[in-house]
Write a structure and sequence with these properties.
7 helices; alpha/beta; four-stranded parallel β-sheet
Length: 171
Amino acid sequence: MNEKPLYVVGSMQSDKIVKGVLETLNQYKPEQLFLEVLDEHVKSDEVYTYSVDFVAAYMWAKDNDVLVNGFEFPTDYIKPILQQTLESIRNLQSRCELSDFRELNKRSYDHLFADFESQLFKTSELEKRRNGMINNIKTARQSDRTGLVLVGLGHLPYFEKNLTDATFPYR
């Protein structure tokens, strides 16, 4: 049996990205969708409390009879938020909303997210979280289905380095 491809695409919590996410899903037609949400929330109405891009992808999957798995790995990775960090978040969101969804997946934007992460996240906990997320994807992956991972844009460099069997179509 041939293994089908696994695509990884970065997203961001913004209603302006939903159209691009839906276009991507229609283009790659995954048979298994991985969302950066807790797996137990996929099986309950709590999935609707997540960002609009993930909710839209979830609804698309349900409308198209696509298997959905959550791959979030809970850990205490967020630093106490300071006013300066809130300003950084607003700045990053406004810069990203000016860009096309697919454009934001390019490596040339990685530095924006790396700067943001250093201000907001505990490095050791973030790495633990990312390792857990990748392990959750590998555990749930059904290689006889085309898969698509929808993950926050800031995770792309780490996923690209550590999920080596995946394709990152917009990088």
